[in-house]
Fold each of these.
Amino acid sequence: MICMFSSILGYAQTGSQEITTSQLVGKVWERVSPRSEHETVTMSFTQTAFTDSAYYTLLEKSSLRNLPYYVTDEQPTDTTFHHEYVGQERTGRYIVKFYPKANDFDYFTVVSLTDDELILFHKARDGQIPRFDSYIKYRRKI
């Protein structure tokens, strides 16, 4: 427990890291934390789409979502998704993804990106259930 708290505190003190769209494209990431023994979650990026997939071992089912996204250095507000940024080579500290069916969007703050590891921070939004901020750690698969 102390080790987990120290890690989270270390992430919080680190802040965020600037990345480019091309650093994401063509890579596949598997979530390592938080992790469920009954779920495997991966994500990948093309120039225009953020794809996340989950496999649920107990149900023997999978899900897949392809969502438009972009990278930006402008902290997202609750009202604006910049569709014109999708597909552009951009630099920034935020990955913003759009949910077309809900006509809504959400974002991650990039805490750290190396060749082997990606750490994102997700700030809970008003009305989100459960409502808590979280750090998500991924290990590179490809």
Amino acid sequence: MFEFNEKNFLIRGRRGDSARFILNFSSPVDEYCIHFFINKNIGDKNPIIEKKILNPPTKTVAIELTSKDTEKLECPNFGFELYFWGVKIHKGENFTQTIIPEKFKNLPQMHIYPSIGEV
């Protein structure tokens, strides 16, 4: 199970678990592509995980990570591994805006803990 703290943008979960996050937008986003991504380092050009939702019909967008997605995230046997995540919106080739993090505050972190047991 994953936890999402909306105040400090911290996501915590176990490698191999599935996750579902809800993003609530204040205005319609049906003309945009929502791009959720997870990177090991802030400036990485190729995300480890990325999800794109094209023209969502409502102001609420669900980001779903499968167990195969989170298996891509490495972690030590004890403690956790630090990753960074973000959300951008796109409209065609002429408009891109970073939504999370906003205004250069609180870099959104993801703490990945080891899986427990096997399925």
Amino acid sequence: MPDQKHSDFVAGLPHRFRAWRDNFRADYQQWRVDVRSDWTLVYRNPIGAIAFTVIGVVIGVIVIRALISLMPPAPVPGGVVEPQYAILHIVCINPACKAVYDSKRPLDFADWPAKCDTCQQKTAYRATLCSACKKWYAVTPNAAGGCPHCAARAIPRKADEPKSTTPVDPDDLDDR
């Protein structure tokens, strides 16, 4: 028998929905009249209670976030903020030194050339890794772009190659 009761409930849903839809306007107008006489009806029904709870939570979260944003940041232990540093790869361009090392510098460091940690002269520049030969080279303001190691290797190859006027392959003789 419980199955019969359940099936009657499900079968009657469309009819109950149509009746609710047809009476909605009159029920809503009556509810408004009742709320004008007793405004506590708004939050005494389940839907009103849920709506007030949700609205209250949203307003509470907004107020708490606003109060937190107005608070000053927590003080740093010791009261002093340490400057930020970066680890830079440095190359000395002094021909007698040619040191390559990592150095800890402030983020706003711009005093190039820097003092070399090895030879103590102001000949150290920030380094770049060559993608072809995988060697570090200095990035100086007046230098030509590119890796000097690769450029130095390319110059002797061009000088060593003999400039021949005769073709190497006999098949190329008729191509002249």
Amino acid sequence: MDDRDGFTVAFGPVGLAGWALLLLGILVRRRMVSLLGLAGVVADVTVAELGGFKAMNEPPGASPAADA
């Protein structure tokens, strides 16, 4: 069985900071802080160059940054 067969949830530094800001914004009821955190989480999930969720779930060498 290949190690890449499973589904891995991994957040990079941008995603972790995003989660922290999102939770902080919810707890102190600040909409802008929550939106900033949500933007960080979405960026981490969609941009492989940030080294988070998307980078962990794509095949090795598929990132444009790997070509440079």
